[in-house]
Structures are given as C-alpha cells and as structure tokens.
Amino acid sequence: MSEWRQSKWLILVELLVVTLIFIADAKHLIPLSKTPFLLAFGWISLRVRKLRWRDVGLSRYKSWGKTLGYGLAAGLALEAFQLFISQPLLVHVLKKQPDLEFFRALSGNLKWTLLAIAGAWTLAAFGEEMVYRGYLMNRVADLMNRARWAWVVRLASATFAFSCVLR
Q1: Helices 35-48 and 8-26: crossing angle, nearest 10°?
Q2: Of the candidates 96, 97, 113, 117, the residue with the CA atom closest to the CA atom of residue 105
Q3: Tens digit of pLDDT for each residue in 88-107?
Q4: Which pTM was predicted?
Q5: What gap in Å lies between CA 2 and CA 45, rounded to an integer?
Q6: In which domain, by residue range, is 20 found?
Q7: What total of structural domains would you count in the chain?
C-alpha cells in the first residue's frame, strides 16, 4: 500500500497537475497568483507521502543574525547591480525607461504599499521558494531516483519553470 506513495506514476501525475496549474495561470484563469495553489498542492503531496516541509528543506537556522546579515548584504548587492548596471544598460539598449505605471497606486499610499510588500514577501519570498525549490526540485529529483545528475536536471527544470513565471 505504501509503495504507491513513492511510485514514479504519482510523481508524473503531480507534475501533470502542476503543469495544468501553470497553463490555467497562463490563460488568466487563476486570479492574482498561482503560488497559493501550487503551495497548497505541494502541501497535499507532502501529506499524502507522509512527509513534512522539513523533509524537503525547510528548517530553522542556527544563527538568525548571520542569516539576516548575509541576506541584507546580498539584497543590497543585487539592488545596487540592478540600479547602477542592469537597468541603465537595458534603458540604453531598449531606448526607453521602464514602465512603472502599475505602481502609481502605491505612490503616497502607505497602507497599500505595506500590503503590497507583505504580499510580495509572502508569495514571492516564501511561497515561490517553497514551491520551486522545496517541492518541484525534490519531485523532479525523486523522478530520477535522486541520483547525483538528477539534482542538476532538477535545478535546470525548476529554474526553467521559475523563468516562465517572469514572462
């Protein structure tokens, strides 16, 4: 009875459902974000297989100070790169400024700005990391018996899936 929980067929069915969620999102059938649907589906998959998020990589850090320090340094470095290198380069190549019209509603509105930040942190920072790196990468690796080369394939496939979100 428990063999079906580790079967390749279950993995393929799960990946098919994930693909259908991506397709529904691409056809604008999912409001706002597909991440909550993917996160819920990942949680259901873990429960069915009698696993926890900890089993796919979610754990407590031993040093929050160090983790936050590294995160802050990396965030500042990425922001500086985007602000001083990539954005000016793109403006030069494309000959136009970025369209920030979508964010006009946040200008001067602290309440909506804080809600937008909380939503982005929840959906992007936590939700997408759990879905793409916690759930999808592990299921692709499971499909290939977690062989060493499977981790390279899972990284490439999860990166590809994540890049489809940015389109």
Answers
A1: 170
A2: 113
A3: 999 999 999 988 888 888 88
A4: 0.65
A5: 14
A6: 2-60+104-165
A7: 1
